[in-house]
Amino acid sequence: IEFVLIPGGETESAFWMGKVEVTNAQYACFDPTHNSRLENGDFLQFSVEERGYPLNRSQQPVARVRWKDAVAFCEWLSALTGESFSLPTEAQWEYACCAGTATPLWYGGLDADFAAVANLADESLAHVDTYPPWNLPSGAIAPWRPAMRNVNDGYRVSAPVGSFKANPWGLFDMHGNVAEWTLTSCVVN
Hints:
This protein has 189 residues and is an alpha+beta fold. Helices cover 21% and strands 7% of the residues. The strands form two sheets. It has a two-stranded antiparallel ribbon. A two-stranded antiparallel sheet has the order 3-4. β1 and β2 form a beta hairpin.
């Protein structure tokens, strides 16, 4: 795992953060039984291709991890290396994500073309797949997901980590790809 030193600011001290999201391959060292599974397809799911899109590729970010398992991964990594690891706080994550920019997203406004910088809901997600023997014509099943139809980042589900341009502080995939936990995301009783 590579790390980037995030500079201190008015409210944050400098801290280290993973350069990319934790991959399935990295997480498998901690939990070899974890399964990020498939993202469901669009249509009747009888054939392999219709069942969905794989999220288990080795360089895709690990998905479907509970908060307590993300914390346990950090504890395991700390014990393995002798260094101290934890999830970032929500404030640290937000600070690192924005990377000193003043815009809503580190790469610009809410209407900015994100195809080169983020894996978000776009034309590749809005498209509805159909398969033989049905071969329904395009539009037979209306697109139902909210998506920016004027942008296409090329990925329907999670992309391999680091596939898009890094933010100004060298962090990848801070917007989109998969959901991320923070230390303050959940309170465990």
